[in-house]
Write a structure and sequence with these properties.
The protein is mainly alpha-helical and about 475 residues long. Helix content is about 70%, strand content about 5%. It has a 4-stranded antiparallel β-sheet, with no helix packed on it. Strand 2 and strand 3 form a beta hairpin. The longest helix is centred in the N-terminal third of the chain and has 37 residues. The radius of gyration is 25 Å and the shape is globular.
Length: about 475
């Protein structure tokens, strides 16, 4: 709906994404600081869900109000692109800040309610984040491929808002019930006498496993991880657009894949993160692997069209949506799976007191989200116009591999020789993978693809709105190709 008002260029979409994530970061940070003082986390969660639902019902009205305001502002700012961008960002933020802040607050609030033991911190955090993200995956897929077609945008929002309010009512009902009492193990006769002795009261705090410099490094690296991840998302969206067309299908395909991988990765990590003896080392290695997987997406995206032969799906010149979705999913799923595994790992490293579980989770989520904001802005405003899709992905991957190597070297969980060996092996693998990449700065080429003109590429440019290519046949005819489609 905001695209209809603010435009659908890379800049406009990036600004909306920044406004959305800024609200998530703000809500997560504030809720994390406040919820540790509350004993009614589930009731607070119910209020948050009700607020999201009620605001969603009002959103069409609010968007209708900003339309004439934007038209009036545009008339005075059309010759000042920078001021117009700031105006778009401001309007998107004003519309989105309340519901997204409420959304961002839910993770630290539920963490406070669910996580009762430090030994189950990774399990609880990974499960919460994983199930929530898989729910987001389903919502994204159904909205992009089903609801918008059969219900329309406004009715889809109404359905989602009703679900929010229903969740709030269920949470209120559960919040009125007493917490279940965990069964206590039977006391053996020989220890019954000793159990009568006074003992120290139980505590939810523990000494941090890592020192403050390491924890600060982890926080910075987790923020940079968000920077890189959302940078990939913007660049992969451009890549999928060339493959699936510049439609809602392209965005829904990319975002569904992105969220599915993160959700599945977080759930998978929740099963073993609490048992890892070297979580810091695992965090560093995961970052290095994500970077290597991201580099591998470059040739995969470039070759997607070539695997679609007419004998697979007939002579229709338009590639079927399901096939676009399937191959995009296979291309991006592995790196996003590793991205999802990082959050419970970092939560276990950084959180050492259940008394501060809300503030720790809120700080981690907000720092990661702020990094995501900067990453999406850098990708949309700098990497695409200056480096292009291919080199932009490569630059982010190199940054991420370097981050992983720094974390591995900073840890003291293995001997120095092993740490340096792992970092050197990561650097050597990276160089080999880069050397195997096809030459040239372009991400795609339409020449020799099925249903495309046979000829010589004369021009190629990845711009803000489209990826443009011109091909000339041997007879002299020239074809203009925008985002993979012949015009």
């Amino acid at each position: 709906m905001l695209n209809l008002i603010l435009g659908s260029t890379t800049y406009a979409v990036t600004l909306v994404l920044i406004a959305f994530m800024a609200g998530l970061a703000l809500g997560s940070y504030l809720a994390g600081r406040l919820i540790d003082k509350s004993e009614a986390a589930l009731n607070v969660y119910a209020l948050l869900e009700a607020g999201v639902g009620l605001f969603a019902l009002l959103s069409p009205v609010l968007l209708g109000l900003i339309t004439p305001l934007y038209v009036w502002l545009w008339a005075g700012l059309e010759h000042s692109p920078q001021l117009l961008y700031l105006t778009r960002l401001f309007l998107a933020f004003v519309v989105l800040v309340i519901p997204t802040s409420l959304m961002g607050a839910t993770l630290p609030v539920l963490s406070k309610f669910v996580i009762r033991s430090r030994s189950a911190l990774g399990t609880g955090l990974g499960s919460l984040y994983g199930y929530n993200t898989l729910g987001a995956t389903l919502g994204c897929f159904l909205t992009g491929f089903v609801f918008m077609q059969y219900l329309g945008i406004t009715l889809t929002i109404v359905v989602a808002a009703i679900l929010n309010i229903g969740i709030a009512l269920i949470a209120f009902r559960l919040g009125r019930q007493p917490l279940p009492v965990l069964p206590q193990p039977p006391v053996r006769p020989e220890t019954a006498q000793s159990s009568k002795k006074p003992s120290r009261p139980p505590t939810t705090a523990a000494e941090p496993r890592y020192g403050r410099p390491v924890l600060r490094l982890v926080l910075v690296m987790f923020g940079l991880s968000g920077f890189v991840s959302l940078g990939y998302e913007v660049l992969w969206t451009k890549a999928v657009s060339f493959f699936a067309g510049n439609t809602s299908y392209a965005f829904s395909t990319m975002l569904t894949t992105f969220l599915a991988g993160i959700g599945a990765g977080s759930l998978a990590a929740s099963r073993f993160s609490d048992r890892l003896k070297r979580p810091l080392l695992s965090f560093g290695l995961a970052e290095m692997l994500i970077g290597l997987c991201a580099i591998a997406t470059i040739p995969l995206f470039a070759r997607l069209f070539y695997v679609f032969r007419p004998e697979i799906y007939g002579e229709n010149t338009a590639t079927p949506v399901w096939m676009k979705f399937l191959f995009s999913f296979l291309t991006m799923f592995l790196p996003t799976l590793l991205m999802g595994a990082v959050f419970p790992l970092v939560g276990r490293i950084y959180t050492h007191s259940l008394n501060r579980i809300g503030s720790s989770v809120g700080l981690l989520y907000s720092v990661n989200t702020i990094g995501s904001i900067l990453g999406s802005a850098a990708a949309g405003f700098l990497l695409v116009p200056l480096l292009g899709i291919r080199n932009g992905i490569l630059a982010l991957a190199l940054l991420q591999i370097a981050m992983g190597a720094i974390v591995v070297l900073a840890g003291r969980e293995v001997r120095s020789v092993r740490r340096y060996s792992l970092a050197a092996a990561g650097a050597a693998t990276t160089m080999v993978v880069i050397m195997l990449l096809p030459g040239g700065g372009r991400m795609f080429s339409s020449a020799h693809r099925p249903h495309m003109p046979e000829g010589t590429p004369l021009y190629y440019r990845e711009g803000v709105c489209n990826t443009v290519e011109v091909i000339q046949e041997s007879q002299g005819n020239r074809f203009l190709i925008l985002d993979g489609g012949v015009n």
